[in-house]
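Q: A reviewer asked whether we had any structural model of the full assembly, not just the individual parts. We don't, so I'm hoping you can provide one. Inputs are below.
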Amino acid sequence: MANEKKINYVILGLLSHEPLTGYEIKKKIDQSLRFFWSGSYGSIYPTLDTLEKDGCVEKKEESSGRGKIIYSITERGRMLLKEWLMKPVEKDELRYETLLKLFFGGELGKEGVLTHIQRFEEKIKQELLLFEMYAANLEKVLDEEEHKYYLLTVKFGIESYRAFLNWCEQAKTLLS
Amino acid sequence: MANEKKINYVILGLLSHEPLTGYEIKKKIDQSLRFFWSGSYGSIYPTLDTLEKDGCVEKKEESSGRGKIIYSITERGRMLLKEWLMKPVEKDELRYETLLKLFFGGELGKEGVLTHIQRFEEKIKQELLLFEMYAANLEKVLDEEEHKYYLLTVKFGIESYRAFLNWCEQAKTLLS
DNA sequence: TCATGATATATCATTATGATATATGAAACT
DNA sequence: AGTTTCATATATCATAATGATATATCATGA
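A: Here is a predicted structure for the entire assembly that you could use as a starting point for your response.
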C-alpha cells in the first residue's frame, strides 16, 4: 500500500500548474522543490510514459524545432492528484549525512567533527540567503494563490535553516 | 563515486560502538538514528554478508540458544569507517511529503492544507517531547564521550522541531 | 498448555538515484 | 562563415534501498 510511486504525484502536481516537458519538470523540481523533494531523469521519463498510457497526462510533440514533447494533465490525472493530496501524509523524512558522521564522532575525533559542523554552517548560510531572497520576491506577488503555497514552503526552509545555524553555535560551544 | 552504499558505514559505525546482531542493528537505527537516518532489513542482512566477505566485520554464531549471529568490527572495517568519516559530506536531504502536498495546495484547497498542517503539528509536538526527554537523560551522562555526540544530534532535533512548530503558527496565520 | 508478542534471519518486487550516452538549438567568438 | 561551447532535451541502466512478507524461535503470562 505504501510505495505509491511519489514521482507520479510530483509530476501530476507540476503539470496541474502548467504543461511542461520532462526536462522542464526536472528543472522545476531542482528549483522550486529542492528544499523538500528531489527527482531524477531516470524516474521522470519512464513515469511520463506510464502516466500517458494510463491516461493521466497527454503528450504533444512539437512539429517544428527539435520536436520536444510537451505534457499536460488530463481530467483523470487531476482527479488522481486530488485524491492523493487529500490522503494523510505517509512519511516526512530527514536524511542528514552530517548528523550521521557526527553521531560516530567518537571514531572521527573532535577536530573532524568541528570541520563537518563548519562546512555545514557555511552551506546553510548560503542557502538561507537564497531563501530569504525568494521569500522577499514572493511576498510581492501574493495575490496569486499559487504563490502563497510556494511561500509557505520557502518560509519552512527559512525557519529550519535559522534553527540549524542556531544549533551550530550550540554545538561548537558544547564541543569546546 | 557517489552511491557509496551508506548502509555500509551505518553498520560499521554502530559496530564500532559494540558487537551486534542484524536485528539489533535495525533496532539501534530505529531508536538512536531515526531522526536523521533509516535502514531496512532488506539492506542490513545482505550488507552484513558482504562486509564479512570483505573482512570488515567478523561473525560469531552463538552455539547455544537459537544460534543468533553476532557481528563485530575488524581493524580493516574500523579503518574504512574512519576514512569515510573524514570525507566531506555528500548529501543532506530533507524529504517532507507534507511540504510537497502544501506546495500543490492550489489543487487541494485551504481546508485540506490546514488539515495537513494540523496533523504535522501534532506529530512534531509528540516527537519534540520525546527528544527533550532524551536530551535531559543524556545531559546526566555527559562524562562518556559517545553520549556527547549522541546529545548533539538530539539537540539538532530539538532545535529543528521547535522551528517547525514556530512555522506551523506562521502558516496558519498566513492562510487565515 | 497455549496464545501472544518480541527476537531473529532472510528474500524479493518495486522505487529511485546518479551516471552516462546522444543529439539538437542558440549564443558567442574569431 | 566556421566552430566552439553551453543549455536544452530525451533516454537508459547498474546500483541502492525500501517495505512487505515469510519463517521460525524464545519468553511471558494467563
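A: Points you may want to mention in the reply: Residues 1-3, 21-24, 26-27, 41-42, 45-46, 66-69 of chain A lie near DNA strand D (CB under 10 Å from a C1'). Residues 6-86 of chain A form a domain with the Arc Repressor Mutant, subunit A fold (CATH 1.10.10.10).
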